[in-house]
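Section: Multi-chain targets

For targets with more than one molecule, the full set of components is provided together so that the structure can be written out for the assembly as a whole rather than chain by chain. Components appear in the order listed by the source. The example entry contains four components.
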Amino acid sequence: MVQLRDVARRLKLSITTVSRALDGYDDVAEATRTRVVRAARQMGYTPRRAARQLRRQRADVIGYVLPASEGHFADSFFAEFIAGLGDGAVALGFDLLVSTAAPKSAAERQIYCRWIQSSVVDGFILSRMRVGDWRVIHLAREGIPFVAHGRAQPRAMHPYIEVDSRAGFAQLVAHLAGRGFRRIAYVGASPDIALQVERSAGYREGLEAAGIPFDDSLVLEGDLTRQGGYSAALRLLALPEPPTAIVGANDLTAIGALRAAREKGLTAGRDIAIAGYDGTEESAHTQPPLTTLQQPIYETARSLVHMLVARIGGEGSLEDPHVVLQPRLIIRESTGG
Amino acid sequence: MVQLRDVARRLKLSITTVSRALDGYDDVAEATRTRVVRAARQMGYTPRRAARQLRRQRADVIGYVLPASEGHFADSFFAEFIAGLGDGAVALGFDLLVSTAAPKSAAERQIYCRWIQSSVVDGFILSRMRVGDWRVIHLAREGIPFVAHGRAQPRAMHPYIEVDSRAGFAQLVAHLAGRGFRRIAYVGASPDIALQVERSAGYREGLEAAGIPFDDSLVLEGDLTRQGGYSAALRLLALPEPPTAIVGANDLTAIGALRAAREKGLTAGRDIAIAGYDGTEESAHTQPPLTTLQQPIYETARSLVHMLVARIGGEGSLEDPHVVLQPRLIIRESTGG
DNA sequence: TTGTAGGCGTTATCAA
DNA sequence: TTGATAACGCCTACAA
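Its structure, encoded as tokens over all components, is:
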């Protein structure tokens, strides 16, 4: 383990000078600096994180808690999201601390509190926002920097990047209505998940715009998994007057619906239209390929890290940045191609 | 920010005593301990990570570098793997540091070296092993604890948990041969990826056992993505004498092949058999559902963390644990049901 | 331009 | 059983 002392000793300089030379202060002679830098590199010196952190009172670490219900889950959305967070963090010299906890669980609370109290992280990335999200309230009160993917309230005051899924779903329903579908079902999520609020509103907006009356029996609650989409779709298809189109709150839900349709002997894209939301790679490889609203998961994650780091650095704390992106409707075979 | 000093002051005790009471030393009076513990909890005390780390010379952090090629990727295998790592770490009081880098890239090397040099992590979880993996060599030389998912060499000397994919593929090929398929193709991965060595060997073993001659033209190199599986399968199906079955090195490859088959007007499970490996949830929801070899991703990740923490703690350093699990063949419709 | 000294919050050693 | 004291490695006023 090589540390400042070693480099200093070798160069017959003081620890102070070495430290400042390395940190790019302008009160060291250029000649000294080059010597120091060269020696440090050659000796393989890297500052001890713990020491620097203790002294500077910041960790250069951001935290992210994966919303993993019941341990198991396999949503490639999050694989891509984490890849974006990781790349973003590396690019800015930050590290990414990851944990997992079921939403709203005691474990979740513990993780956030522990990370805050022991100052392991400088800020948080939040995703899968809930209505009245305690994390938002808590972090805001504690003064811990955070940015969210989506927002906890219609008129949220925290910094976020959001994809306008409301407009997206309205557009999607318009697309279906344009193809002549009138009985359009929607499989959503628990009403306390923020995205459900937005997406179901977009669905209703789309119906209204198309002059289709809202039918309560065509709206079911899923859980954003393939399984959830599957069983909800089965129930819909068992209705006396089943829907001719099913819209899922995300791609996984729609993929579950595809399976249900097939088991009922229906061919998606011909006998029934099915569409999702997210635009993960998986949606391009289903049979038939899935119509979906694509959101830039990777890029959003990267941007979130940038926003967060800016806030940690204390920039732009006057105004909370609210970024709204538009999803892109990708029409594939599952709605007729 | 409440620290030892505050608790000590409040209780009119020394910092030392408080520290030891909290850490469970047995040289503090029981009465004192209860007072301390209560006060600490009430005041919301948690040790500063950086300080503890600096003093104890260990971080209680494990590192994992996600093999993300070109930034983007969406493999739910890794979502599940990370969930397992996260849960395992939490259960043992460790934190999980995650970064992303393309395999063999300079960035990858940098991350490992930086984490080692600045002692941010106590050990590493390795996955997606490569033949002659530099990480294994480097970490072993530096004496940094690590455990691997899979192994870098046929006779690897490092600790690992492996799923016997060789036996698995042999079993899979036997299954296909038993159904009368003779022209069985294999879409694998780059030959420097360790799993390719194992899986392709299992494939050949299976052919041999079934008395099917090995046909070079039926083996293609994919890249473990849906896209890769898709284009490889297209090439296979364009052969003068196309295969009647396609085995993918993982589920994503097989899913790409499903798509290719469909575009060629073939119905999987009837006109052609297709099978994968991993047993992710996605494989259960394809059309038709995919025959696959299931490996316990989540549990393996958890176990890896346990193994690693044991090694960090210095236990069992005499012998490297080598755990071998058996995959489970799940027969679904894509091979005839 | 360089060096000295003190402290960030904990834990460990030793003495009381 | 408890307390004073000295590190852990780094950063930064301040002095030289």
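Residues 3-5, 15-16, 19-20, 23, 47-48, 50-56 of chain A lie near DNA strand D (CB under 10 Å from a C1').
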